[in-house]
Amino acid sequence: MQMQRTDKPGFDRISLASRALKAAVATRAKAEADQSQPICVYGICEKLGVSVRFNNINMEGMYQRSAQPRIHLSARRPLPRRAFNCAHELGHHVFGHGSSIDELREDAKENPWNDPKEFLADTFAGFLMMPTMGLRRAFRARGWAAAAASPDQMFAVACEFGIGYETLLTHLSLGVKIIPYARAKILKRTGPRAIRAGLLGRLVSEPLIVADRHRVATTIDAEVGTLVLMPGGTDAEGSALVREGDVEAGRVFRAVRPGIVRAAAEDWASFVRIAPKEYVGLAQFRHLEEDPDE
């Protein structure tokens, strides 16, 4: 398989960003996805006929162009990073690029790729995962002004769209320009570790997903070991999701085994889809205990 990587500085980033935005909208339409709601990027790939596989490799992602196109992702990366990397690799597919191996960075818009193909794929990923209408709806529904949102509030919105906290801040400031760049820099001084500690009242090393009552997606993607903060009064069916306790912001659960669990409160419900930790296999089987592809 021939890998393509070029170095072509001096390209028109504004023109490419516009092209990426149009392609992201068209991709959602082709996959029959809502233009404003959060998406499962693996489901989008499946609808477009692109196979996605997680591998135990120390890289970000790879796009394999063939009669049966494939995206390979590292199972070692955090869940939000894997999703964004998948969207980036899907961008290579959408734009007809050749097979490529990528080393992605969540701050890519602040340190743009010199290669226009990489810039195009990365910008496409941002617009695909975080549509402007959806972001505005997310803040408005919660009664928050994006430009004045706190780190905790930004973290909640990032969780709704399934992307990283800093990725959201970069996209809000440099991608869709909803908040000033200076504000994004200030918010980045408070990292996810401090945000988790503030929400849970203790320091934790495990990843945390916040799912509040304003979340419109009907599913929450987690993996074994993930903590999930849901609305107060939430109960979970089965034994894959174990209640850890209540905090001011809601009720905390821990994902302890793979499966799909329904969690519900009086006026809220969602399905939590739990994959094995650092799951290796086809994305479509990630919530099963065994991978039929193995």
Automatic annotation (TrEMBL):
<protein>
    <recommendedName>
        <fullName>IrrE N-terminal-like domain-containing protein</fullName>
    </recommendedName>
</protein>
<dbReference type="InterPro" id="IPR010359">
    <property type="entry name" value="IrrE_HExxH"/>
</dbReference>
<dbReference type="InterPro" id="IPR052345">
    <property type="entry name" value="Rad_response_metalloprotease"/>
</dbReference>
<dbReference type="Pfam" id="PF06114">
    <property type="entry name" value="Peptidase_M78"/>
</dbReference>
<feature type="domain" description="IrrE N-terminal-like">
    <location>
        <begin position="45"/>
        <end position="171"/>
    </location>
</feature>
